[in-house]
Every structure is written in structure tokens, then in C-alpha cells.
Design a protein that fits this description.
The relative contact order is 0.17. 29% of the residues lie in helices and 23% in strands. The N terminus is likely disordered. Strand 4 and strand 5 form a beta hairpin. A 6-stranded mixed β-sheet has the order 6-7-8-3-9-10, with helices on both faces. Strands 2-1-4-5 form a 4-stranded antiparallel β-sheet, with helices on one face. A two-stranded antiparallel sheet has the order 11-12. By secondary structure, it is an alpha/beta fold. Keywords: ATP-binding, Cell membrane, Ion transport, Iron, Iron transport, Membrane, Nucleotide-binding, Transport.
Length: 311
């Protein structure tokens, strides 16, 4: 199954950073191909998995998994390596077909929806995406507009505005004319996020969006996603490895263990010492995060045991 985005679409006239900045308005509300049709309220699309069973050949990764993504929330999927996090995200976006169960978007099977219709609602940033050789930043971000294109319709001012806004939001406008393959890992990651933002979907699925980023840029990306959720009602589902960032930036956590949902709900109920032990095989202490007031996981290693550990 291929991605919803067409990365080989015909190129446009390249942007310059000055043009990009001039195109960004304070009342940015670009029109889309779907204008005039009745669709669910922004951010209110319902995504659900029922009885998912997914595997690779003989190896079963997900088994009998049920999950409901609450519209308008930020949900982080956490779990140990090989617990099925990326497989779940890829199945929700229909990049993988389940051997059993189904994925429903607004009550419809995602596998029955036309690709462009699905891509106007659901955007995916996969793990370690690969860009076409020699493509510039602006052209890659412009590929995010493919779901909004129609036959015989020229690239529009709304498309320009969407790309400009995405580049500005991710602080990549000054990189617009640079080839993607010349960028650092952190810069590339921000460009990929810009492409997904240009797609302007109400549902965003991101597989480790903070990969390759230093701690400052990790916070910038997560703040950006939080802004999208707060200001546009965008429903966000992401895989994160950092439990403490997941707890701070998410309305709900989904902890996977052995291909099933071990626990799901607010971070305060999911991130317990028992959960961290069972899911990650790690002893920990849970304290209050002095910034958010939520749970903060403090790992207990063999060489840094507290006064009551090992007794």
C-alpha cells in the first residue's frame, strides 16, 4: 500500500523566503476542494480500531486490539521497542491491511475510502521518510497539497498560502530553496512536518515526530502540535518514546504491551510504577512534574538506587 501523498507530482515554480513571508496572513483560512460539501466539523472526525490483528508473515504484532481516538484530543502511543506502536499507526492510516478486525473513520472502513478523500482528512508522517533525490524544501512541502488538487485545476493562491503557512510554522521558510538531501537530520524532520501541515487535515498521525531533534527543537515541535490542537481542533495521534514529554503534551496515553492495549486514558492514570514495570521492564518512581503537575517518570537504574531500593 502506498502513502496517501504523491511525492512525484509535477513541480511548481520555486518559492523564495521573502515571497513566502509576504503570503502569510493573520487570517489564514485557505479554501479546499471540499468547500460547499457537508463534512464533519473540523477536528471532530472519529477514528476507531476494532479487533485489529496485524502481522508480518508468520509474526503477529497486534492481536485483538481495540482503540478509540477521541476527536479533538492529543493521544500519544507509548511502549517498548517492538510492541507494535508503528504498526498500529500504519494500520490506522491504512498503509497496512489488518489480517483481522477493521479501522473505521466516521463509521466507514478506511479501506473503502478513495485515497484523496482519506488524505483530505488524515495526514501521516511515517518513521524515517525518504524524499525524492534533489527535491527542494518548498517542492517537498508542496506535495502535501496533492489531496486538494483536481484535474485541470492550476496551482492556486490557497495552495501557496497553505505551503507558506506550513513553512513559517515549522521555521523552515529560509530553507525553501535548499535541496532536502543537504539538510541536517533535525532540519529534515521539520520539513517533513511542514509537508504534513500543508496537507491541512483534521487528523494527524505522526510516528516519532521528534526523531533527530535536539531537546529545544523537540519542545518546539510539540508546542507546534499543541497549538494546532488548541487553535484548529486538530486531532493528533503520535508515537513518542519520551514518557515524560508524552505525559506533558497529551490528553490521553495508550500503552502497548505484547500487541495489545495495556492501559489507555489520562497520563495520571496510565503512568503508574506498575505500568512502567510491566510495559518497559523498568523500575521507576512517579513524582509530580513541577511544570505541568502531571506524572513524571524517574527511572531507577542498578547504579542509582534510592535509599529504599534493593531492600
Amino acid at each position: 500500500m502506498t502513502s496517501h501523498l504523491n511525492l512525484t507530482a509535477s513541480p511548481r515554480t520555486p518559492y523564495t523566503p521573502s515571497v513566502l513571508r509576504a503570503e502569510i496572513g493573520t487570517n489564514f483560512r485557505p479554501q479546499s476542494e471540499s468547500a460547499g460539501r457537508h463534512e464533519p466539523e473540523a477536528g471532530r472526525h472519529e477514528l476507531r480500531a476494532e479487533g485489529l490483528a496485524v502481522g508480518y508473515g508468520e509474526r503477529h504484532v497486534l492481536s485483538g486490539l481495540d482503540l478509540e481516538i477521541e476527536p479533538g484530543t492529543v493521544t500519544s502511543i507509548v511502549g517498548a521497542n517492538a510492541s507494535g506502536k508503528s504498526t498500529l499507526l500504519r494500520t490506522l492510516s491504512r498503509l497496512l491491511s489488518p489480517a483481522g478486525g477493521r479501522v473505521l473513520l466516521d463509521g466507514r472502513s478506511v479501506h473503502s475510502m478513495p485515497s484523496k478523500e482519506l488524505a483530505r482528512v488524515l495526514g501521516l508522517l511515517p518513521q524515517s521518510p525518504v524524499s525524492p533525490d534533489g527535491i527542494t524544501v518548498a517542492d517537498l512541502v508542496g506535495r502535501g497539497r496533492h489531496p486538494h488538487q483536481r484535474m485541470f485545476r492550476a496551482w492556486s493562491a490557497a495552495d501557496d498560502a497553505a505551503v507558506a503557512h506550513a513553512l513559517d510554522a515549522t521555521a523552515t521558510a529560509d530553507l525553501a530553496d535548499r535541496p532536502v538531501d543537504e539538510l541536517s537530520g533535525g532540519q529534515r524532520q521539520r520539513v517533513w512536518i511542514a509537508m504534513v501541515l500543508a496537507q491541512q487535515t483534521d487528523l494527524l498521525l505522526l510516528d516519532e515526530p521528534t526523531t533527530f531533534l535536539d531537546v529545544s527543537h523537540q519542545i518546539e515541535v510539540l508546542d507546534l502540535l499543541a497549538d494546532l490542537n488548541r487553535d484548529r481542533g486538530t486531532t493528533i495521534v503520535m508515537v513518542l518514546h519520551d514518557l515524560n514529554l508524552a505525559a506533558r503534551y497529551s490528553d490521553r496515553l495508550v500503552a502497548l504491551e505484547g500487541g495489545r492495549v495495556y492501559a489507555a486514558g489520562p497520563a495520571s492514570t496510565v503512568l503508574t510504577e506498575q505500568c512502567v514495570q510491566d510495559v518497559f521492564g523498568l523500575r521507576s518512581r512517579i513524582i509530580d512534574d513541577p511544570v505541568s503537575g502531571g506524572p513524571l517518570v524517574v527511572p531507577v537504574g542498578r547504579h542509582h538506587q534510592g535509599p529504599t531500593d534493593g531492600v
